[in-house]
Design a protein that fits this description.
- The structure is a single chain.
- The protein is α/β, with parallel strands linked by helices.
- Among the domains are: 1-111 and 452-519, Rossmann fold (3-Layer(aba) Sandwich); 200-336, no CATH class.
- It has helices spanning 35-45, 76-81, 113-123, 138-149, 152-199, 205-217, 219-234, 240-254, 259-288, 293-312, 318-336, 338-384, 425-428, 431-448, 465-478, 491-494, 521-533, 539-549, and strands at residues 2-10, 13-19, 24-28, 62-69, 89-96, 102-106, 109-111, 124-128, 391-403, 406-415, 423-424, 453-457, 484-487, 499-508, 511-518.
- The strands form three sheets. A six-stranded antiparallel β-sheet has the order 2-1-4-5-6-7, covered by helices on one side.
- Strand 1 (2-10) and strand 2 form a beta hairpin.
- Helix 7 (219-234) runs antiparallel to helix 9, helix 8 packs antiparallel against helix 9 and helix 12 (338-384) packs across helix 14 (431-448).
- The longest helix is centred in the first third of the chain and has 48 residues, at 152-199.
C-alpha cells in the first residue's frame, strides 16, 4: 500500500508530505483546488513522462517520492529479476532537473522508466473515468474472466509454452530461408565439392612434388656432381677415404704413447666412420639417379592442377585449399540434410503444440465454467448500483489460433435495459453506466486477485442518492482486501472513509499553492457539511454530516 507521498516543487505545490493508511481513504476538495495535480505527481513518480512545465520554480529540481509497503505483494522475484535491493517498505523517487533531465530511483538505485512502469502495475492502479474504456479491451475482459477462473498458473504455463513455440517457429523459418538460399547455390557448390574431392589433396603434397620436380629438372647436373663427389672420396691415390685410412693407421701406431695422440686417433676414427657412411649414401644416390620423362610430366600436371585450384579459390596453399573444401562440403551437406533438420524442427513444433493445446483446453474449460459466476456477480453488484436490468452476454469460442493468453476468442456484450439488444460496452453503455460496471469489475477482481492499491478518481460522477451510498459500501468492502483511495465530490462517499484528506489552495506571499492535509474529526464534519450545502454551512447540513459520519 501507499504509505507516504512527498512532493517538492511540482506544479502549484511547494512542499507537501502526507501519510496514508490502510482501508478506505477519501480525498475531497473544491473544483480547481489541485486534485489533478496530486494525481499528476503520483503518476510522475510511477513513471509518467515529465517536462519542465512540471516545475513550480524552474531554477530548482522537482522531487516526488512515494513510500510503498510491499511485503504482501510477493515481489522478491521481480526485484531479483531487475537487479534491485528488495525492501519491505520500498521508496520510489523521481527527480526533474532544471535542465529538463529526468531521473528515477527505487531504493536509491537508478532505474529506467521501463522498470518503473513494470513495478507500477504491481503496486498502484489509478482509475479515472476515461479508463472505463478499458472495459472494451479484450485483454482486460479476459483478465476479469481468468481471475474468477483462477487461471493464473495455467496461463503462466501456457505463456512459457507459447514463447517456446514462437521460438521454434522462428528457427524453422530461418532453416527454410537458409535452405532456399542454399538451394540456389547447391549445383555450383556440388561441382566445386566434387572437383576438390576428386583432386584428393594432401597437406604436404605440393612441397614434396615441387622438390621432386626440381631434382628431375636438374638431373644432368646432379649426376655430374655426384660422380665427381664419389671420385674425390674413393680414388685410390687421392681419394679422401684412402687418405683418411692412411692417417688413421699413422695415429693408431702412436696412440699408446700419450693420451693426446689417443684422442687425436679417436677423432680421426670417428671422421673416417662418417666419411664411410657418406660414401655409401653417395653411391646409392648415384645409382638411383635416373630421369623419367613420364614422371616429370605427371608431376608437372599434378602441380598445375593444384596451382589452378588454388588460384580458383583465391588461396596460396593446399592447407587453405582443404579448408575451402571443408567449407563447401558443409554447404553441400547442409542442403542434402536440410530436409532432415526441417522435419526434426517440425516434429518439435508439433510436440510443443500438442502440450500447448492441452493447457489451452484447460484454460478454456475454466473460463467457460466461470462465466455464469461472473454474470451473476456483475448483475447483483450492478442491481445494487441502480442498474437492475443490466445483463451480460459473455461467450468463449475456442479457435485453432494461438494467442498470448490461450486459444480463445471472447465476446463480452452488454444490455442495460430489460429486453434490450446486447451490444459492445463502449457503444451501448453511458459514461455513468461504464463507471459503475468498472467499479463492479474492480470489486470482483479485488476478491479474486491480489490487486495493488487502487485510486478512484471521481468514478462516482453522474450518480447520487442511494446509488452513491451503494458505491461507498462497495468501496468499503474492497478496502478490506486492499488499500482504496477515492477522490470524490459526494458527501455520502466521503463519510464512509477511514481517513479523510482535503486538497485546498492557499496564498503565500502573493503566490497560490496547493496543499493537502488530513482532517480531524471536527474538520470532517465541516467538510462534509460544506459538500452538502456549500460555503454557507447550515445547522441542518452539520446535523446531516454527523449522521452520515455515524
Amino acid at each position: 500500500m501507499l504509505s507516504q507521498l512527498s512532493i517538492n516543487n511540482y506544479a502549484l505545490i511547494n512542499q507537501l508530505s502526507i501519510d496514508f493508511s490502510s482501508g478506505l481513504s477519501i480525498i475531497t476538495g473544491e473544483t480547481g483546488a489541485g486534485k489533478s495535480i496530486l494525481l499528476g505527481a503520483l503518476g510522475l513518480v510511477l513513471g509518467n513522462r515529465a517536462d519542465l512545465s512540471s516545475l513550480k520554480d524552474t531554477t530548482k529540481k522537482c522531487i516526488v517520492e512515494a513510500k510503498v509497503a510491499i511485503s504482501n505483494y510477493n515481489l522478491q522475484d521481480f526485484f531479483e529479476e531487475v537487479d534491485l535491493d528488495y525492501e519491505a517498505e520500498t521508496i520510489i523517487r523521481r527527480e526533474i532537473l532544471p535542465s529538463g533531465k529526468s531521473r528515477a530511483f527505487i531504493n536509491d538505485t537508478p532505474v529506467t522508466l521501463t522498470v518503473l512502469n513494470q513495478l507500477r502495475v504491481k503496486l498502484i492502479d489509478v482509475h479515472s473515468q476515461h479508463q472505463t474504456m478499458q472495459l472494451s479491451d479484450t485483454n482486460f475482459q479476459f483478465s476479469i474472466l481468468d481471475a474468477l477462473a483462477k487461471n493464473a498458473p495455467r496461463i503462466a504455463s501456457y505463456k512459457r509454452g507459447f514463447s517456446q513455440l514462437n521460438k521454434l517457429k522462428r528457427e524453422l523459418l530461418k532453416l527454410e530461408e537458409k535452405q532456399q538460399e542454399a538451394n540456389k547455390q547447391y549445383d555450383y557448390n556440388l561441382h566445386l565439392f566434387k572437383e576438390l574431392e576428386d583432386a584428393k589433396i594432401k597437406v604436404d603434397e605440393q612441397e614434396v612434388l615441387e622438390e621432386k620436380l626440381e631434382k628431375l629438372n636438374n638431373i644432368e647436373e646432379i649426376k655430374d656432381n655426384l660422380a665427381e663427389a664419389l671420385e674425390l672420396t674413393i680414388n685410390e691415390e687421392i681419394g679422401i677415404q684412402n687418405l683418411l685410412n692412411t692417417l688413421d693407421n699413422r695415429l693408431t701406431k702412436i696412440a699408446s704413447f700419450s693420451k693426446e695422440y689417443q684422442e687425436l686417433s679417436a677423432r680421426i676414427t670417428s671422421v673416417k666412420i662418417e666419411i664411410d657412411d657418406v660414401v655409401s649414401e653417395l653411391e646409392d644416390a648415384n645409382e638411383n639417379v635416373d630421369f623419367n620423362p613420364n614422371e616429370a610430366e605427371e608431376i608437372n600436371d599434378r602441380l598445375q592442377l593444384l596451382y589452378n585450384l588454388q588460384k580458383k579459390h583465391l588461396v596460396n596453399s593446399n592447407k587453405e585449399l582443404l579448408a575451402v573444401f571443408e567449407e563447401i562440403s558443409e554447404k553441400v551437406v547442409a542442403v542434402e540434410s536440410a530436409d532432415e533438420f526441417i522435419q526434426k524442427k517440425q516434429q518439435e513444433i508439433a510436440s510443443v503444440s500438442e502440450k500447448l493445446d492441452k493447457v489451452a483446453g484447460l484454460i478454456t474449460k475454466a473460463r467457460t465454467a466461470s462465466i455464469p459466476k461472473l454474470n451473476k456477480q456483475l448483475e447483483v453488484l450492478l442491481a445494487d448500483l441502480g442498474m437492475e436490468n443490466a445483463r451480460f452476454s459473455i461467450k468463449i469460442k475456442p479457435t485453432k489460433n494461438y494467442f498470448s493468453n490461450g486459444k480463445d476468442e471472447l465476446t463480452f456484450l452488454f444490455s442495460a435495459n430489460k429486453g434490450g439488444n446486447f451490444g459492445e460496452l463502449k457503444k451501448v453503455a453511458s459514461g455513468g453506466e461504464l463507471s459503475r460496471i468498472m467499479l463492479s469489475v474492480k470489486t470482483i477482481l479485488s476478491e479474486n486477485t491480489q490487486l495493488p492499491t487502487i485510486i478512484f478518481d471521481e468514478i462516482d460522477t453522474g450518480v447520487s442518492g442511494e446509488v452513491s451510498n451503494k458505491i461507498a459500501a462497495i468501496m468499503q468492502q474492497m478496502s478490506k482486501n486492499m488499500q482504496v483511495i477515492a477522490i470524490t465530490h459526494l458527501p455520502q462517499i466521503a463519510a464512509k472513509g477511514n481517513s479523510h484528506y482535503k486538497v485546498y489552495k492557499a496564498e503565500v506571499n502573493g503566490v497560490t499553492t496547493t496543499n493537502l492535509k488530513q482532517l480531524t474529526a471536527e474538520e470532517r464534519v465541516k467538510e462534509i457539511a460544506e459538500m452538502l450545502s456549500g460555503k454557507d454551512i447550515s445547522e441542518s447540513a452539520l446535523t446531516h454530516a454527523k449522521e452520515l459520519l455515524n
